[in-house]
């Protein structure tokens, strides 16, 4: 009887792991950008990347901006994926480095050990904090203002009545009552919702060059919100 119980538990565990794999695969397909971490002998490097292509056994990604350091073949990567269901952490490694029309492409192994991250900077709370976002596009600059839907130390989600269009650069100011944060951001994903029978969009962004002191401040405010 005990043997059958152990076998049943293994089946459930494998099914859950496969479900997570399918889930995260869908999340990656819909992503506009995500954070990649890797280590050299001295530093931890973080770069924001986008996906060029997804194959069954590997993914092709490229950095949005020219990074200070480039991961070599064999380098282990931590992938931090911002989704509406939480922030996933995955493990991968570089299996090839290619050049395509002046852009560096990284072929990476298909992500494994996909799990909701427990790191404090990704703890998210439904805090409504005033923000002002400057979105530079090809022919104009749009200004978006409002309050966040939710926030964490490395990202924000906002609501808007329009889809998020292609852009060149994003700057955002987040105004806590006694603390102003200025940083750049990159668009991650959108989700269509309905508010009072009217269409609306939730747009999520990763904060790309936010200072550590500002991350710590946001995390503290998120924890205080949860305790209130």
Summarize the structure.
With 228 residues, this protein is of the alpha+beta class. The chain has helices spanning 2-30, 212-227, and strands at residues 34-39, 44-54, 58-63, 76-83, 86-100, 103-109, 112-116, 130-136, 141-147, 150-152, 155-160, 169-176, 179-195, 198-207.
Notes on the protein architecture:
This protein is an alpha+beta fold and 228 residues long. It is 20% helix and 51% strand. It has two helices and 14 strands; from the N terminus they run H-E-E-E-E-E-E-E-E-E-E-E-E-E-E-H. The strands form two sheets. Strands 9-8-12-13-14-11-10 form a seven-stranded antiparallel β-sheet, covered by helices on one side. The protein is globular and about 45 Å long. It has two domains: 2-118, Electron Transport, Fmn-binding Protein, Chain A (Pnp Oxidase, Chain A); 121-227, Beta Barrel (Thrombin, subunit H), CATH 2.40.10.220.
In CATH, the homologous superfamily of the largest domain goes by the name: Electron Transport, Fmn-binding Protein, Chain A
> What class would the helix/strand composition place it in?
alpha+beta
Q: Label the CATH architecture of the largest domain.
A: Roll
The helicity comes to 10-25%
């Amino acid at each position: 009887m005990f043997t059958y119980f152990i076998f049943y538990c293994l089946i459930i565990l494998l099914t859950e792991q496969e479900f997570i794999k399918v889930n995260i695969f869908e999340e990656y397909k819909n992503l506009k950008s995500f954070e990649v971490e890797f280590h050299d002998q001295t530093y931890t490097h973080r770069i924001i990347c986008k996906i060029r292509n997804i194959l069954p056994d590997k993914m092709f990604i490229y950095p949005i901006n020219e990074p200070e350091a480039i991961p070599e073949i064999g380098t282990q990567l931590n992938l931090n994926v911002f989704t509406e269901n939480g922030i996933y952490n995955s493990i991968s490694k570089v299996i090839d480095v290619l050049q395509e029309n002046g852009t560096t492409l990284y072929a990476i192994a298909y992500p494994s050990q996909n799990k909701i991250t427990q790191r404090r900077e990704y703890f998210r709370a439904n805090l409504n904090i005033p923000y002002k976002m400057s979105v530079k596009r090809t022919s104009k600059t749009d200004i978006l203002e409002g309050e966040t839907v939710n926030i964490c130390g490395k990202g924000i989600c906002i609501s808007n009545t329009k889809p998020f269009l292609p852009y060149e650069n994003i700057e955002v100011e987040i105004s806590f009552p006694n603390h102003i944060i200025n940083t750049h951001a990159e668009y991650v994903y959108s989700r269509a919702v309905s508010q009072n029978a009217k269409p609306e969009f939730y747009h999520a962004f990763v904060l790309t060059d936010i200072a550590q002191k500002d991350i710590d401040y946001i995390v503290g405010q998120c924890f205080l919100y949860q305790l209130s």
